[in-house]
UniProtKB/TrEMBL annotation:
Residues 100-127 form a coiled coil. It comes from Hibiscus sabdariffa. It is a multi-pass membrane protein. The chain crosses the membrane at residues 422-446, 467-484, 547-565, 577-600, 636-654, 758-778. Belongs to the V-ATPase 116 kDa subunit family. It is found in: Membrane. InterPro entries: V-ATPase_116kDa_su, V-type_ATPase_116kDa_su_euka. This is V-type proton ATPase subunit a. Pfam families: V_ATPase_I (PF01496). Keywords: Coiled coil, Hydrogen ion transport, Ion transport, Membrane, Transmembrane, Transmembrane helix, Transport. It comes from the Eukaryota. Essential component of the vacuolar proton pump (V-ATPase), a multimeric enzyme that catalyzes the translocation of protons across the membranes. Required for assembly and activity of the V-ATPase.
Length: 820
């Protein structure tokens, strides 16, 4: 839908697009290309005509399995590229030129090659790590043996010198006894060398001692740098150990303990000469392996780069093919098995585009027979489709989160674009905070092209998706902030000088009684003189509370008026006469009258008590109003309005169920024959018929009456509770204003009063964090949720059924990035 080319009507959000149920009969040879072209178009929602079959029984199950296998290989390539630190190429490619069979073979070859490279690389790397450990053992154990040999030689020299100096009469006898010992009875000690993880070294030593009953000698030397373990491939700190033992049984025990502790053993020669040769040999092999590994990594990187250049094209191709075969599996096979039959929903405006796509597919596939396109007549309720753009889509999502609109019923999303940010701003009125919100959302709007192509976090993605909602909220907040005359709770004389001044120098700002009007009324918003006075809170409370009721009654009236447009559109006269009219009379007889009293009181400056008027309108409608009278004939008007409100309740409740019963009886007696309707008229009226059970064979009068009773009670009670619910606008506005005052006076001004730079800096930092954390984040979320509730409950329940289902066309543009 990127290019509408003037064929489509202008975007109309008030009603969903007119839909039609179409049938396509497509020859087998052009079926694949036809579905592909329809996927590019993205304006047809296919119906599953094989819902009784399992996925494995369908015609194209084998092709889907092939595509799934190719998708698995591509996921494997992606994992390997991410491990190697490569990114896939984002440049567009001509995936249509790729043959699926060739791609399958190529992916298989590349996978086999990459698996072989990985296996060889892992084998070489393991050998390399083993040689590094071996070299370390040779060095550390060699140092131990060399030092031991030097110590033994020094000890022998010392003993020899002592014997020469201290000869006695018994010395020859002892020497003869020593030399006469049988050499065959001398014990030969064996030893094992290797590395053990340092964290296990203490336990290793303890187990060795216990297993051999102390008949071992263990020497450990820590390796300076971490060593890569050949088995696990992880870097860890290790100790080089040498264990001396006597006997085969002890050796077997030590070997088993080494295996249990993951200690790698390496052969070692006692001879110093052999040790030197082994170190040289191992060093040579290490350098050779290093060269071989580097060459292998270079080859692997080149292969991954080649894959990366074409990865996106291959991935898109495989996803498209898989989605095409999924769609083909939803088509039913004709009796002749020479063509496929498809059914689906499409917008009426897309008829020409779908027919062009069918003709192009038949021509490009060299099919001798073209596809047949025909519109089916149905009583089934069509899907709901609104054409939105990046600005309106977020507002439509707010409505859809409550419930998708029934086919072609009035869409509250149109009004939500203005009313939602406005009601938010009534609760968030501060033009300083509004500017902060605007700057934050402008960051997302300016960088939207870059951010839309990136993977964002959950909260960031949510904020980015609603960037235009936040922009509208911030603009309206600036507007209401100027009306409230609050900039971080500080008033400014932006639109002229204040109309009030002090009577004398001593009055200061203690109370508004000491103020006199010296100039013209402040032209826009609240006069700055009210701020800081003792009368500020009672004045603003009265203003905001009355304004909340006016806004609430106006929005509820809008909701009832929209129910009239719904009834007119669906030709439902019963809803006009027995729902719209009594609801308008009831709501406006009570709360419309209250709104009128508020406006009259503001205009006349009267001191009348509106609470008293409204309460005694019910309790004592015939009593004189006295000082609470706002206009002549008010008492008579109140009695008339009260009677109208009382009459409207049975008006809503009683006639409609009886008239519905009469309509049902007339229809089944053959008294309501009518000419056949056109497709459009049928689709428009079907939702209305279905919602009242007209198509049921049996008319349950009791059920309909109870439903109408519930609806009437809900409206009557809801009129009171919903009007009271709008007082949240006043409550949250007051809370926001008072929090702003607290943070300004008790943090910023308090820190300023100390005349200390450090305290001032700390105060400014606390003020910034409190403003951002509480007022710009928590209060924004709070006001957003309350505005959401006012729309979902108080506004939409007057007219919006929201029991439709979304139009989900088969479109390649909607293919997600998630793995299948």
């Amino acid at each position: 839908m990127a290019d509408r080319g003037g064929c489509c009507p202008p975007m109309d959000l008030f009603r969903s697009e007119a839909m039609q149920l179409v049938q396509l009969i497509v020859p087998m040879e052009s079926a694949h290309l036809t579905v592909s072209y329809l996927g590019d178009l993205g304006l047809l929602q296919f119906k599953d005509l094989n819902s009784d079959k399992s996925p494995f029984q369908r015609t194209y199950a084998a092709q889907i399995k092939r595509c799934g296998e190719m998708a698995r290989k591509l996921r494997f390539f992606k994992e390997q590229m991410l491990k190697a630190g490569f990114s896939t190429s984002t440049k567009p490619g001509a995936e249509n030129d790729i043959n699926l069979d060739d791609l399958e073979v190529k992916l298989g070859e590349l996978e086999a090659e990459l698996i072989e490279m990985n296996a060889n690389g892992e084998k070489l790397q393991r050998g390399y790590n083993e040689l590094l450990e071996y070299k370390l053992v040779l060095q550390k154990a060699g140092e131990f043996f060399a030092s031991a040999q030097r110590a033994a030689t020094a000890q022998q020299r010392e003993i020899g010198s002592q014997q020469m100096g201290d000869e006695s009469i018994e010395t020859p006898l002892l020497q003869e006894q020593e030399t006469s010992t049988d050499l065959s009875k001398q014990v030969k000690l064996g030893f094992i060398t290797g590395l053990v993880p340092r964290e296990k070294s203490m336990a290793f030593e303890r187990i060795l001692f216990r297993a051999t009953r102390g008949n071992v000698l263990l020497k450990q030397v820590p390796a300076e740098d971490p060593v890569t373990d050949p088995v696990s491939g992880e870097k860890m700190e290790k100790n080089v150990f040498v264990v001396f033992y006597s006997g085969e049984r002890a050796k077997n025990k030590i070997l088993k303990i080494c295996e249990a502790f993951g200690a790698n053993r390496y052969p070692f020669a006692e001879d110093l000469g052999k040790q030197g040769l082994m170190i040289n040999e191992v060093s040579g092999r290490i350098s050779e392996l290093k060269t071989t590994i580097d060459a292998g990594l270079l080859l692997r990187d080149n292969l991954l780069r080649t894959i990366g250049d074409q990865f996106e094209q291959w991935n898109i191709k495989v996803k498209k093919e898989k989605s095409i075969y999924h769609t083909l599996n939803m088509l039913s096979l004709d009796v002749t098995k020479k063509c496929l039959v498809a059914e689906g929903w499409s917008p009426v405006f897309a008829t020409k585009q779908i027919q062009e796509a069918l003709q192009r597919a038949a021509f490009d596939s060299n099919s001798q027979v073209g596809a047949i396109f025909q519109v089916l007549h149905t009583r089934e309720s069509p899907p709901t489709y609104f054409r939105t753009n990046k600005f309106t889509s977020a507002f439509q999502e707010i409505v859809d989160a409550y419930g998708v609109a029934k086919y072609q019923e009035a869409n509250p999303g149109v009004y939500t674009i203005v009313t939602f940010p406005f009601l938010f701003a009534v609760m968030f009125g501060d033009w300083g905070h509004g500017i902060c919100l605007l700057l934050a959302t402008l960051f997302f709007i300016v960088r939207e092209k870059k951010l839309s192509s990136q993977k964002l976090g959950d909260i960031t993605e949510m904020t980015f998706g609603g960037r235009y909602v936040i922009m509208m909220m911030s603009l309206f907040s600036i507007y209401t902030g100027l009306i409230y005359n609050e900039f971080f709770s500080v008033p400014f004389e932006l639109f002229g000088r204040s109309a009030y001044a002090c009577r004398d120098l001593s009055c200061r700002d203690a109370t508004s009684v000491g103020l006199i009007k010296v100039g013209d009324t402040y032209p826009f918003g609240v006069d700055p003189a009210w701020h800081g006075s003792r009368s500020e809170l009672p004045f603003l409370n009265s203003l905001k509370m009355k304004m909340s009721i006016l806004l609430g009654v106006a929005q509820m009236n809008l909701g009832i008026i929209l129910s009239y447009f719904n009834a007119t559109f669906f030709s439902n006269s019963l809803n006009i006469w027995f729902q719209f009219i009594p609801q308008m009379i009831f709501l406006n007889s009570l709360f419309g009258y209250l709104s009128l009293l508020i406006i009259v009181k503001w205009c006349t400056g009267s001191q009348a008590d509106l609470y008293h008027i409204l309460i005694y309108m019910f309790l004592s409608p015939t009593d004189d109003l006295g000082e609470n009278q706002l206009f002549p004939g008010q008492k008579t008007a109140q009695i008339v309005l009260l009677l109208l409100a009382l009459v409207s309740v049975p008006w809503m409740l009683l006639p409609k169920p009886f008239l519905l019963k009469k309509q049902h009886e007339n229809r089944h007696q053959g008294q309501s024959y009518a000419p056949l309707e056109s497709t459009d008229e049928t689709l428009l009226s079907v939702a209305n018929h279905d919602s009242h059970g007209h198509d049921h064979e049996e008319f349950e009068f009791g059920e309909v009456f109870v439903h109408q009773l519930i609806h009437t009670i809900e409206f009557v009670l809801g009129a009171v509770s919903n009007t009271a619910s709008y007082l949240r606008l006043w409550a949250l506005s007051l809370a926001h204003s008072e929090l702003s005052v607290v943070f300004y006076e008790k943090v910023l001004l308090l820190a300023w009063g100390f005349n200390n730079v450090i305290i001032l800096i700390v105060g400014i930092i606390v003020f910034i964090f409190a403003t951002v954390g509480v007022l710009l984040v928590m209060e924004t979320l709070s006001a957003f949720l309350h505005a959401l509730r006012l729309h979902w409950v108080e506004f939409q329940n007057k007219f919006y059924e929201g029991d439709g289902y979304k139009f989900h066309p088969f479109a390649f543009a909607l293919l997600g990035d998630e793995d299948d």
